Amino acid sequence: MAVDGSLLALLRFFPFTEEKRWNLFMVDFSGYSISVTVLQEGREKITVPAGEFECYRLVLVVNIRF
């Protein structure tokens, strides 16, 4: 679906310090409507070749109506 890129762009604005739940409603270019609930489940540290980083763990629940 075409909203994938838009959803990723919107997640940049997730209110990490304010809320634990965020409800979104989006319409795809083909006319499909999608509601997404973003849940902040916690924080964790990950280690990659570039170093150690503290990250937020998010769960996305996507409801697609056809």
Short précis:
This protein has 66 residues and is mainly beta.
How would you sum up the global shape?
elongated
Largest pleated sheet: 3 strands, antiparallel
The gyration radius over C-alpha positions equals 14 Å
- Mean pLDDT value: 82
What is the rounded distance between the termini?
Answer: 12 Å
Low-confidence stretches: none
Secondary-structure element pattern, one letter each: HEEE
Major sheet: arrangement of strands: 1-2-3
- Helicity range: 10-25%
The tally of beta strands, per DSSP, is: 3
Strand content: over 45%
Walkthrough of the structure:
The structure is a single chain. The protein has one helix at 3-11; strands at residues 21-27, 33-48, 51-65. The protein is mainly beta. The longest helix has 9 residues, at 3-11. The radius of gyration is 14 Å and the shape is elongated. The model has no long low-confidence stretch (mean pLDDT 82).
